[in-house]
Write a structure and sequence with these properties.
Keywords: Repeat, WD repeat
Strand content: 25-35%
Largest sheet: 5 strands, antiparallel
Organism: Jacana jacana (Wattled jacana)
Radius of gyration: 33 Å
Function: Specifically binds 5-hydroxymethylcytosine (5hmC), suggesting that it acts as a specific reader of 5hmC.
Pfam families: WD40
GO molecular function: DNA binding
Distance between the termini: 108 Å
Shape: elongated
Amino acid sequence: DGSSQLSAYERKRLKNITENAKFFAALKLHEVSARLHQIATKRPTHVTKRAKPKKAEDETVRRRSMRLQRVEPSGVPVVEELGQLGAEEYPQVPAGPFPMVPEDEVESSKLAEELLTTWMRISEVKAKDPEEHTCDMKRYQDSLNSMVLSQENIRKVVKYRVCSMAIHPSESLLFVAAGDKTGQIGLWNVSCRSEEGAQVFVPHSFSVTCMQFSPCNPAHLLSLSTESLRCGDVTRAVFDEICRSEEDLSSFDFLDGNASSAVVGCWDGSVAVVDRRTPGTSPELSAGIGFKRTRTVHVHPVNKQYFVAAGSVDVCIYDVRCLKPSGTRPVSSLKGHTKSVASAYFSPVTGSRVVTVCADDTLRVYDTSSLPPTVTALSTIRHNNNTGRWLTRFQAVWDPRREDCFVVGSMARPRQIQVFQDTGKLLHTFSDPDCLSSVCSINVFHPRKSILVGGNSSGRLHVF
């Protein structure tokens, strides 16, 4: 056999082969194979064949717009693009103070330093009190008619949709701040005609829904996003964190003239009181006001203890001294809204009017010179407020120099911005077929001069 000449390893290998062969023979696999072959070759029973489906190329493909496909004109899906933004371009901003350094720059550039120096210089001038209603309606309309838009007064200041704006009160230079949906804040010195007149900072991680220059110190720019309320202090070149809350924040307004305290609205329907003089970033008080969500809050210009809050279908006036953790009752309820309310603001001089924007395609003006438990609308204006998901919702805001006139965006064509009187009369339409071709959802008047700035969904500002 020659097995004696094999090594121990080869003898072991042969033994294993023999044992495996005996094992497989015991399984009788040849019988199983024959049975499977018999089943496979058995004549099938008669069945009715289904008609073949039409090929995809034979069918007429129904065209769907990029908007319905949620695809940007560039062809990039919206969800994918936003995911890339959050993960790559715009990482989460850390808590605490944040340096005032422009986007994509490790150190502040010379151009940014010049812009911040300009902001600090115009803030050193003592701000005057806003002028009250001093001219008649005819002169006011004439001033509106004299305001025009030119190409040099259009600038893309932030990268994405404008969600809030603020104008510096300086009369020497026109200085505008705009916040977009990704947390960017753009600062634009409109008086500087060069391309370097605007710089972008990213102090927030989400939409900047509310911005204001401090009424007592315009070197401070307060901005609010979902996660925090910050103060951009140009004198120290830092974005301080005033408030950070577990509840998503929606809006704020100052409770006093020195901007030391503020009322903050939250998306869960509550409101909070913040005091900058106390240590830490937690609110002093959180109160439930019975809303499903609170979109805007605005403090009465004279009686600072009152503020108006706008929610899902509710608009109510509250006394900040009576806020409780739950069950806070309103001083007055402004009735008539049938759908969600985008904003509600007191008139700037006496607070005797409140204007609201509602998704039922109506602007409403209320008389709040007295505060009964229920207030009905003084005037109603039919107005297309159906902005959809691609535009920032309209907000009607008062002209700071007037007690009876407010500005609001428009869906009408040609594209325009409208100014109404509190009686419901359309006073003026800002339009320019050559320069204005988009919807300006966010609009704000200069506090002392005949200047209007409108922001659109692509981050552009238009200055009339």
